[in-house]
Amino acid sequence: MTKAALRAEFLKRRMALAEQERSRLDDLILILFQQWYWPDQLQMVLSYWPLRERAEPNTFLLTDFMEFRIPELRLCYPVINAKASTMEARLVDMDTDYVKNQYGIAEPKTEEVIAPIELDLVLVPLLAVDKKGYRLGYGKGFYDRYLSQVRTDCYTLGISYFEPVEEIPERDEYDLPLNGCLTPDAFYEF
């Protein structure tokens, strides 16, 4: 199976989940997240805005929990530059305004850029993940390029409604494995 076919299959599987079922799965993911052994000194987190039209897991539940548990937590969201094929983390707060980019992703309208080496945890969007931690994203490569710049002790965590597949096809030297992936049924460490 090709990456394109696997992308289409997992997007179709996610879109087939009824909203009520996705909400139930989001709750199960949150329960496991609350039981997770947190990285030491967790202070700076890069999350992402979940796309309802792509039935992505609700990361807001996770970030709300982290902000409750760690009041001094600093939260960032990505802003991409499609022409340069780059991404950067922008610091957000309760007053941050967002605007949708050309892919329909809400991006913060803030100016404070956080360097990749300052991040302690990155929540990474994906369509599928394999048993070695390699993820299948939407194919633009923004996250792979960005994750190559984070510290080696920065924890990269995927969020998925589905269990890992055996292997992501057509991997190349730019593909980086995640440290872990959270599903409704289990927490996988790679």
CATH topology: Rossmann fold
CA(first)-CA(last) distance: 23 Å
CATH architecture call = 3-Layer(aba) Sandwich
Fraction in helix: 25-40%
Largest sheet: 8 strands, mixed
Average of the residue pLDDT scores? 94
User: Runs with pLDDT <50, length 5+?
Assistant: none
Strand content: 15-25%
Overall 3D shape:
globular
Structural class: alpha/beta
CATH class: Alpha Beta
Helix-strand topology string: HHEHEEEEEEEEHEEE
Please tally the β strands and state the result: 12
Radius of gyration (CA) equals 16 Å
Count of discrete alpha- or pi-helical segments spanning 4 or more residues: 4
What order do the strands of the largest sheet run in, or round the barrel if closed?
Answer: 6-3-2-1-7-10-11-12
Total count of domains:
1
| CATH H-tier superfamily | NagB/RpiA/CoA transferase-like
Describe the protein's architecture and organization.
The longest helix has 17 residues, at 19-35. The protein contains 4 helices and 12 strands; from the N terminus they run ααβαββββββββαβββ. It is globular and about 40 Å long. The chain has one domain (3-189): Rossmann fold (3-Layer(aba) Sandwich). The protein is 25% helix and 24% strand. Strands 6-3-2-1-7-10-11-12 form an 8-stranded mixed β-sheet. Strands 4-5 form a two-stranded antiparallel ribbon. A two-stranded antiparallel ribbon has the order 8-9. A hairpin with a 4-residue loop joins strand 11 (180-182) and strand 12. The model has no long low-confidence stretch (mean pLDDT 94). It is α/β, with parallel strands linked by helices. The two termini are 23 Å apart. Helix 2 (19-35) packs parallel to helix 3.
